[in-house]
Amino acid sequence: MTPEALETLLAGVPSGRLDLPVAALDPSAAAYLGRFLPAGRLALTGCVRAEAANPVTVTGTGSPGPFERAEVTLRFTLTGDVVSRVEVIVRPGSDWSLADTFPPLRGTLLDTLRFSGAVLRLDTDLIAESADPPDPTATPLAFEGDLLVRPGMELVGLLFPGESHPLSGEVTMTSLAPPEITPATPLVPSVALYGPADAGLDLGLFTLTTLRYGLFGLPELNYNTLDHQVRGALVIAAGIPVSAGSMTGLTEDHKITIDARLASWSEELVLTADFSGLGPLTLADIAGLVGLETLPVPFGIDPGAGITLGAVTLAVDPTAANPVDYLTMTLYTEADWVVIPGLLTLQQIDLTVRVVSPGPSAQVSVLVSGLFGIGADGTLELVADSTTRRIGGGLRADDPPLRIREVYRHFTGDEPDHVPDLTVTRFQAGAVVPSATVPASFDGEIVLDGVWRITEQVTVTQVGFDLLHDPTGTTFHARAGLLLGGVAVMVRAGYDPDPGRRWEFAGETGPGEEIPIGRLFADLADRFGGLALPAPLAESVVDNLAAEVSTGAGRLFLTGRTRFPVDGTDVALTLAVDTARRSVAGTLDLAVPVQGGTFHPTLELHFAQDPTARRLAASYRHLPADPVPDLKALVGALSPTAAAHVPEGIRLDLRQALFALSGNGTRTGYLFGVEVAATLDLGRLPVVGDHLRRTTMGVDPLRLLAATTALPAAEAAALAALLPAGFALPAGDLAAGFTVDATLLLGPFTQALAVPVGGPPGVAPAPATGAPAPVRTGDDATWLTVQRSFGPLHISRVGLAWRQSPGQEARIALLLDASVTVAGLTLSLSGLAIGVSATNPLSMPTFDLAGIGLAYDTVPLRIGGALRKDMIEYEGVRYPAYSGGLSVRTPTFSVGAMGAYVQLPAGPSLFAYAYLNGLHAGPPALSLRGLAGGFGYNRRFIAPAIDQVAGFPLVADAITGPPPGTTLADELRILADYLPPSVGDYFLALGLRVNSFEMVDAFLLVAAAFGHRFELDVLGMATVVLPAPDAGAGPVSPVAQIQLAIRATLVPDDGYLAVEAQLTRASYLLAPDCHLTGGFAFATWFTGEHAGDFALTAGGYHPQFPVPAHYPTVPRLGFAWQVTKQFSISGAGYFALTPTTLMAGGRVTALWQDDSLRAGFDASMDFLISWQPYHYEASLHVSIGVSYTFSLFGTHTLSVQVGTDVQLWGPDFGGTAAIDLGIVTMRISFGSAGGAKPEPVSWDRFRDTLLPPRDRVLGLSVRADTHRAAPDAAAEDLGIVDPATLVVSTTSAIPASGAVRGTREREVALPTGGGRTAFGVGPADLAPGAVTAVHRIVVTHEGLPVEDRFDYTPVRQGLPFALWGGRLAPQVTDPALVEDLVTGYELRPRPPSPARAVRVDRSALTADTPLYTREVITLAPPPRRPVVPDGPAARASTIRTAMADPGVAATRSAVAAALLPSAVLDTAGFDTTQFHAIPQVAAHV
Questions:
Q1: Which pairing describes strands 1298-1301 and 1334-1337: parallel, antiparallel, or unpaired?
Q2: pLDDT tens across 1018-1058, in order?
Q3: What is the pLDDT of residues 844-882, one digit of tens each?
Q4: For the chain, domain boundaries
Q5: What is the pTM of this model?
Q6: What are the residue ranges of helices labelled H in 1314-1459?
Q7: Dist CA 394 CA 397 (whole Å)
């Protein structure tokens, strides 16, 4: 580098910065400096250049890099025109660490060093000294400085006194990685720092001379990761002088080197030296060297002469009085030791001596080691512990190979023909040195190299033997690794000379070692052939594989566990493979929760012979001692999907269970079945059982099945073929879901019955025998028509059913429909059943009868009756209910009754109803023809809708009887909806049937329901026939028949009253083809949500009126008459009145149609009328049309139509008319302008005509538990009430836009609770928000305001929209009410504030002298006092007189002053009117 180039590099120095790229220097200097500057440049800040021209010197502070924050001097020496020398001198601060400059040293011992006056020097002149030839990459960085002895570094402080030690040395950047490795690994520092030398240390046993230490950073390469790491080390070294003549045979001086290496300051100082250079010594010499008088040798061994002392180790603590904590040394001898005669002799005995606390109290222990020869070349290195008398060791390395047969022959003396001829690679031996109480023994763990073929198909690797010799003899046990499916099974074996046994290996992989079962079977098939993997197991993985191999039998037997996937659940499966039998078997191990723990049933697996068939079956026989599990839990342990079909709570005594799996490659189905240890015997049935006991009648077996998918008959048969004897599946197709299956036995007749629970109704496939096909009904039952007779008993059908209701136990029932006929009387039995519990295996069978029918039909008497059992639901629980009826009919009268009963937890619930027809009492104008009556207990009466009254059994039976085709059972089912159980509800019903002149026939039923609420219902039917039938005149066709259904309801609690009437379909006029329709209804609501609303209608409402949901709906008043085949005429009309409008209208239509000619007439009118202000609107429509259709080159229609539409309004009267002539329409206006807005009324007129009288606009009422007012009290006097339950209610006919309490001077706004405060006055044309009405509440007591003593709750209700909706002209789409208007408040007294506690000093209540000295106090009755004459006035006078007495007043004041010193008591203002009830008092108070 030239001076000019140098100046260019130093151009930034005047500004205080220097950035020197190393590459700008000459190559040798760049290669040298670049190893210590990883960034390839040296950057300085705060630079100052010295004035001297040569060398050029720049001093600054190192910026980020190896010399950061250190003072750096950069010196360039010029020789001629060349920079001949570059120096970098670094002086870091006192807190600097070597790791700051060399990061790989972080965390090492070198990182803990701190220095004073440290100087790091890079000098290119050192390159020439580095090597020959010079090597810049090997040139070091020179270091010098004083090491500060800091806390934790006491070791060097003790060995070398002083607070700092001068250190010097060097750092070289190096790499240990091979040069061909790319990318190159980063350079790491190699550090060598040397401290003081020539110190001395007296250890008592020895004196150390030339003591010195050094600090080193030693790079290492991790060949796995190719990363460097640097290990720090403190090395301490010294010499031990040994003078000639100090030991026997020692003729010259020796200096033994001793040293120690420490990786941290906290390590123990352990010095090691080698004394073998002293030559042969005696035990006495060695003992004296370590400060002992003698050196004991254990086990009575004589080491002889010529002992060599080897390595000596000393643990040194320089701070202790005895610096040597302990020492160890090794002694080499040529002696032999016979441990076990004839078996174990150790040669070339060595002694390892450990001396703790050398000196007079030294503790000495000795280990004996030696060599044990086996076979031709085998040698074991063994060590004996004199304390435990145990010997241990292993095979010596680098000796010729030892064969296992040599070992066997040495220890047994037998020929080793059955032992493999393999090489021993490891022999870990142990022995016990015999004593008087402990016999000798020898054991060995032997590892061999090679493969052992134990059978023709099986070889083992990792072979080893366990050797044991004791007084009973010598044994060898083999161990090896058996490779199956790529996984090693560790097996062990003992030897039996029996030819059928020999070596018998057994072992397992243990849990967690997984083997794909396909790989395992592929291995077995290659070795043995004839073994195939069942298809369902193809994807399984086996763990805990156990193997047994017998070299005598040549048999391999495997067992293993796998998690077999079944329906998303892994089930424990144990697999067993026998290569001798070429068989595969297994078990499924389930875990089923049962009461008190977990039940673990085991199912035997059965695989298909065809290895490609994806099916298997499993069977289980239930033992008497096994618990009875819940069926859902049992099925769920295998298939959650199948378990989802099983109802809850089924627990049946099992005989056996089965599981089957069937797959077609895309879908897998699962089937679980149990056979129940129960039979259903028809011979035990009531009534008919005696006729069935002579033969076998019932079902056996009884099975429950759960399947995830339907199985066709062929697949079900294939699965059944896998099952062992005694197990079976139903023949035919198997349905998905839960199925109850049984075999029906009726003497010689047998038939399978299956009930798919929850399945759809339908007909099952007919059996192959030609028997009738079973029929499945929708109530989980399957019926089979049998039509068989047994004497007077005839069985029409037999059924199997599953019965389960919410809250009730599930049952399996055998059903029977049968009848018994004797002498014309037929007793029919419906639902005769025998059932077993599906939830309680210990319960007895139950017998049931769903209904009994009675029939007797012999002129003139007809008797019919029925009693049925059903289930009725109440509050989510189903209960058995009984209902029935009986009717007796003759040509002159009929009588009947019906009723129902159910027992609820709260008591019985029942109703009864009876009717009598055939009476003739009273004049023809009003003749009594029938009576009816009934009652209900814990039953609610629900009146039918108006269109259901005609068919309501309580009405229909009292008139004409049930409709055709309706049975008594049908009527009872209908009544279940109208008369449901309801605890606490009751009703009474009374009905009369009357007739007037044979023209009017009417029935009226009055029902009063009470209990939770009172309701009065009136139901009726009235029929008018004109002319009246005349039996003497022969049949006459009536010209009119009017039949009217009537319904009236009053519900005071709901504030609801409604009256309805409606023509039935039997009504006509002139001819039966002229049907009459229509209805009438009136409803009003006086409390509740719709209070103030009403509706009156005949025939319905305006077509555009949106009928509120709570309004009654009735059909149009009208008629429809098909006069002839061609001509028909119809008409309809309506009238309705609501709070908003009055509406009316009608329509008439006539139509003639005869083939191609069609003519029609249509006219309609609709009115809408409102009041205050009075306004009406009307629409009128009339049209006449004729059309004719003919065919001429196609079909054509000629039509003519004339019509008019008229719109009217008023006042003032006006309207428009549109006349449609088909081809032109003319529009005409007349009267006032179209739809003129009505004139609004004034507020005074609105108030006077549409609001209540002024004295009734506002209202005030009181509610309380007790309430008393004086008979002569003023109207505004509310009397005396209980404040705890007091509620004062204010009401207003005018809604409030706001509310306050108090007078105007002190008013406080009241909350409206979210109520609507914006409303209008429609008749006055005031829009919502334009009306202000303040609801003001003022409460005073004795003239003072007390409003703040009450809480205020707004009362909200709906008011007519016509009044308060704000619309002047009503619309049909207007709502009936304006909801949530504030119409009043409820006032409730606030609870009084808690009284202030007053404390009375105890001494004030203590008497000065004892009042009683006796232990027993006798209470004498007080003297009798005369009582004043009774009566409130007399009592009040007596009390006032006593209170005014000065003596009484003084006494009361004294008592009050003693108890309440600060209280002011004024009895002068006492008034008896404040008493709720004036008490009776004595003559003097």
A1: parallel
A2: 999 998 888 777 655 566 778 788 889 999 999 988 888 99
A3: 677 777 777 777 767 677 777 777 888 888 888 888 888
A4: 3-177, 590-846, 1247-1269+1278-1389, 1425-1485
A5: 0.45
A6: 1361-1364, 1432-1444, 1446-1459
A7: 9
